[in-house]
UniProtKB/TrEMBL annotation:
<dbReference type="Pfam" id="PF01144">
    <property type="entry name" value="CoA_trans"/>
</dbReference>
<dbReference type="InterPro" id="IPR037171">
    <property type="entry name" value="NagB/RpiA_transferase-like"/>
</dbReference>
<dbReference type="InterPro" id="IPR004165">
    <property type="entry name" value="CoA_trans_fam_I"/>
</dbReference>
<comment type="similarity">
    <text>Belongs to the 3-oxoacid CoA-transferase subunit B family.</text>
</comment>
<protein>
    <submittedName>
        <fullName>CoA-transferase</fullName>
    </submittedName>
</protein>
<dbReference type="GO" id="GO:0008410">
    <property type="term" value="F:CoA-transferase activity"/>
</dbReference>
Length: 252
């Protein structure tokens, strides 16, 4: 996996799909949550998004190799979040057709079957700056008809909030099966591209609600030779991406 000449893996298609979320973003703070999104953000910075800002998650702005390039105190980080100068890619324990996200609990909130992370910053993220989602295992347990608790705000709830949600924007969703957006008349989820080896029928079977599917669905963009070199020899030479998205046929 350290040589560019070998076949592109599903994990590498996921990295490039996550990187594309920041194409044209300009000088905004990238906040990727999870290994694959982090590799995507760093790859975007090294290639087509040179103005992208990266953080160590604590108090520094960093280069793709992790070396410091500036100071980012917590108060300034919050100002970027509240002012919309940030594009976060969060995870989702549940996600519905309008992009409502749950990372708090499974089951009734008053007596949940499972406690998760909690609401955390999801409402502020979704109402103030661009938000994307990363789902490493696309299944009906994640892509549900109705989330058990709303943490990240989806398009239907944002519409009900009126002017309060004027900065709301869910840029897209990347999973281990494909790429999705909400560019439909009612802002319900739409299939944008399939990763190689994945069929529309497979995506539909793993999604717990009717999904908008165009007549022709393209394949996710393949990484170029230089992008593959960066992924395999600079950003992730140990191949940790393969643990988050195993090789095709290895999904449990």
């Amino acid at each position: 996996m350290s040589t560019v000449g070998t076949a592109v893996t599903r994990a590498e298609y996921c990295v490039i799909a996550c990187a594309e979320a920041w194409r044209g973003a300009g000088e905004v703070l990238a906040s990727p949550m999870g290994l694959i999104p982090a590799l995507g953000a760093r790859l975007a910075r090294l290639t087509f998004a040179p103005d992208l800002l990266l953080t160590d998650g604590e108090a520094l702005l960093v280069r793709p190799d992790g070396t410091p390039e500036g100071w980012l105190p917590y108060r300034q980080h919050l100002a970027l979040v509240a002012g919309g100068r940030r594009h976060v890619m969060m995870g989702a324990s549940q996600l519905d057709r309008y992009g409502n996200q749950n990372i708090s609990c499974i089951g009734d909130w008053s007596r949940p079957r499972r406690q998760l992370l909690g609401v955390r910053g999801a409402p502020l993220n979704t109402l103030n700056n661009a938000t994307s989602y990363w789902v490493p295992r696309h299944s009906v347990r994640v892509f549900v008809e109705r989330v058990d608790m709303v943490c990240g705000v989806g398009y239907d709830r944002a519409a009900a909030l009126g002017d309060t949600a004027r900065f709301h924007r869910i840029a897209g969703v990347v999973s281990d099966l494909g790429v999705f957006d909400f560019a439909t008349p009612d802002h319900s989820m739409r299939l944008v591209s399939l990763h190689p080896g994945v069929s529309v029928e497979q995506v539909r079977a793993a999604t717990g609600f009717p999904l908008a599917v165009p007549d022709e669905v393209p394949r996710t963009r393949e990484p170029g030779a230089e992008e593959l070199r960066l992924i395999r020899t600079v950003l992730d030479p140990e191949g940790a991406r393969m643990r988050e998205v195993p090789a095709e046929g290895a999904r449990g």
